[in-house]
What we know:
It is a single chain. It contains three helices and 15 strands. By secondary structure, the protein is an alpha+beta fold. It has an eight-stranded antiparallel β-sheet with strand order 11-7-8-9-13-5-4-14. Strand 8 and strand 9 (171-178) form a beta hairpin. Helix 1 runs antiparallel to helix 2. The record marks 207-208 as: Cleavage (non-hydrolytic). The active site is at residue 208. Pfam families: PS_Dcarbxylase (PF02666).
Amino acid sequence: xxxxxxxxxxxxxxxxxxxxxxxxxxxxxxxxxxxxxxxxxxxxxxxxxxxxxxxxxxxxxxxxxxxxxxxxxxxxxxxxxxxxxxxxxxxxxxxxxxxxxxxxxxxxxxxxxxxxxxxxxxxxxxxxxxxxxxxxxxxxxxxxxxxxxxxxxxxxxxxxxxxxxxxxxxxxxxxxxxxxxxxxxxxxxxxxxxxxxxxxxxxxxxxxxxxxxxxxxxxxxxxxxxxxxxxxxxxxxxxxxxxxxxxxx
Length: 249
């Protein structure tokens, strides 16, 4: 299915298949499985079974399914699987605003809409770029490991800021934030890379959050509590501002 063109009128072919396991996670899963087999070899079944289930959990955590990415040039797609936990007006992070001395684009220091997505340990943790364009900034900031659902996690936790600029100059910044269990943010890209919308940019190990900073004049198309899918769910349309309401039931 990878690379196939599908549309809203039924063109293309939808197939089911087991998701791939990202290479970053295979070593952990294989190690846990190896320990389980070692325990089983010595007839330590009380230890072998828990390790076997742990290996399955690790493989599931690092799953990397294919996604059908919208090709609308105005769409900002979700960079992460998870639940919308915050939609609020804030000033963008300093790392995405200040001049870095290289004359590269940056975000305005004016308040903008931040959409925050919380990923539990059961969600896919491969992150994707919300727009197509060039990676202008990738800034890693060491920090704490507070609950990623807390508002202050955006400023105090270990995090990595990414700024992507489209060919027309529109920029979208987003931040990968480590959580209570997460201890490492793994990038797949570097400054200067050109990305297609929905392309994989990195992962966060074991529970985390991603903040997206929408361009000026753009409002969210998702609502608090809504579940989103990385590379598929449209978070916003550039230049579009309208109120959407929902009812939980």
